[in-house]
């Protein structure tokens, strides 16, 4: 196979999987790892991908890239709905305690699935998301607390020192947390330091932490880490993690639930 043919195949694999590994590509194309590294270097120089440890990811997975709320609402909608429904298994049928909902479109799917239970008035819901707060406030019988702070326009979430301080003073029974990346070595991460600070406080405050993330987030590493895998209890996603991440989650005693 000529180099140009390999390059085309690598780009197709990257588009389908979001990430490629040097060793796997070498075995696939029956060439040396040095050859694959040269291929990846060439493709990076053309802007087709971004090199990371052990392989490459698509350019759209840069560590600081963060899509807007409107973009995310249109992305993986069905998968997020399924994740939202599956995540409610963390509460059980007779749950009557307190729930913290992180900002984000996957946690919004959790909120949507939660509406019938919220309407019964048997649980306290806390969030720092203006979007989720607005939606849940319209539910008759809802018991809702909205954490304030400086509102970050891109995510419609309250952030800043006051937000972090308020969250740190809470002790919710279950927190549903969104993330931009779940990595075997870097843990949970997000592009923005202010968002990361709030997420870190949520994880530290909750009695049980349930992370909701579609499969695109698996293996991704964004700029700011906010929790290690050992800090969470459950990961709810729509596809099985790869071997490296699965082993790391098992070692951290994290339950993985597939939607």
Task: Provide structural commentary.
The protein has helices at 3-17, 22-29, 33-45, 69-73, 77-87, 105-118, 130-137, 161-168, 193-205, 243-251, and strands at residues 19-21, 50-52, 55-57, 98-101, 124-127, 143-146, 150-152, 157-159, 174-178, 181-183, 187-190, 208-212, 224-227, 234-237, 255-258. The chain is elongated. The strands form four sheets. A seven-stranded parallel β-sheet has the order 6-5-4-9-12-14-15, sandwiched between helices. It folds into two domains: 3-61, Arc Repressor Mutant, subunit A (Orthogonal Bundle), CATH 1.10.10.10; 69-258, Rossmann fold (3-Layer(aba) Sandwich). The chain has 259 residues and is α/β, with parallel strands linked by helices.
Structural class: alpha/beta
When the domains are counted, the total is 2
Mean model confidence by pLDDT:
89
String of helices and strands: HEHHEEHHEHEHEEEHEEEHEEEHE
Number of strands: 15
Helix content: 40-55%
The gross shape turns out to be: elongated
Report strand %. 15-25%
Q: In order across it, which strands form the biggest sheet?
A: 6-5-4-9-12-14-15
End-to-end Cα distance, whole Å, is: 39 Å
Known CATH architecture of the largest domain: 3-Layer(aba) Sandwich
**Total helix count?**
10
Work out the radius of gyration: 20 Å
Q: What is the CATH domain class of the largest domain?
A: Alpha Beta
| CATH fold assignment of the largest domain | Rossmann fold
User: How is the main sheet built?
Assistant: 7 strands, parallel
Task: List unreliable stretches of 5+ residues.
Answer: 68-75
